[in-house]
Write a structure and sequence with these properties.
The protein is of the alpha+beta class. The chain has one domain (3-69): 2-Layer Sandwich (Alpha-Beta Plaits). The protein contains 2 helices and 4 strands. The chain is globular and about 35 Å long. It starts with a strand and ends with a strand.
Length: 70
């Protein structure tokens, strides 16, 4: 199963819990700041490795991640 996530940059508070939750290592810290002064995470869209397991979304305390499955 293929998956894809979207991250709401304005809701992300840079806790990095999703980075540790992603078994494939597809989430990384960003160098850019959002309007609240946090550096939100970003999804590395390299290949089709995301399975849509939802661990990142479940772990996110700010509900900033949405998971989509194909």
């Amino acid at each position: 199963m293929k998956g894809h996530i979207t991250i709401d940059r304005e809701l992300c508070k840079e806790c990095h819990l999703c980075i540790h939750a992603c078994k494939k290592g597809l989430i990384a810290p960003s160098n850019e700041y959002n309007s609240r002064g946090y550096r939100p995470v970003c999804f590395k869209e390299e290949g089709d490795e995301c399975t849509g397991c939802t661990l990142c979304a479940i772990t996110c305390p700010d509900i900033a991640i949405e998971v989509y499955r194909e």
